[in-house]
Amino acid sequence: MTNTTELKLRTQDGRLLHGTAYSPQNPNETVVLLNPANAVKESYYTDFAAYLAAQGYWVYTYAYSGFGKNKPDRIHNATTTMSDWIFQDYAAMLQHILQTHPDYAKVVIGHSFGGQIVPLLPQSQHIDLGVMVASQTGAWQTWKGKGRRLMWTLSHLILPINVALWGYVPARFGLGQDVPKGVALEWAKWIKHPEYLFAFLPEARQQYAQFQAPTLVWSFEDDDYAPQEAVEGLLKYLPQDIVQRRYLHPKELDAKSIGHFGFFRKKFEPTLWQTTEHWMRQALAQVNKTHR
What we know:
Rossmann fold, 10 strands, about 290 residues, alpha/beta, two-stranded antiparallel sheet
């Protein structure tokens, strides 16, 4: 049975950040940080985190500021931005595992936006492995067909108009949870630019180019939120020799669908989860061998 402990950290700008630590009964000297997708609840990752902990990993999950336990009493009072999620929330979590588990191997698994930000901190140089699940560039110009129209509409209409009307973007517009004003406006700005976040975060290109951790990248044929052209639009910024791509059609797993969110559903434990965990063990063994 997995033990969980509530985590409370302070970000560099003084915000209280809640998370959860999953402690294994038989630690394997590896710690995993799980970066969530935009507007996805921390609880969505519970089963996957518990699975990894059962395999011996320390696992940490959290929600970004503005969501879950990190949400203010009124969404209108949320002052967070997507940049804050990177340089405050992610930074606080990564720094915590670096300090708490200094001698452990470090793995960061990111879902969608959570994968985009894996290499973006100076501390990312201390990551031993990365895993990106359905991570992509949001630049609408990179997308094709229906997805291209969707991202243009999101950035030019849905996000800015709802902020103007309500002061935030209500969850009923298909974003999972209410999205704070600052997040919505920065997200829209990034989506509108062909270089996405790389056009606005000064060190982003360099951080990606210098990232050296072997990185497993999962993408799926039926994922309307991370089509393959958008996935490749993100991966082009990474050194190609560290990237290991896994592009799957649901039929390869005898599944009707996987989509943008399916990877973390428990029914994929015998396939996607076990394959990922096996890759982590093999990749860490190779990293350790190389560093001897």
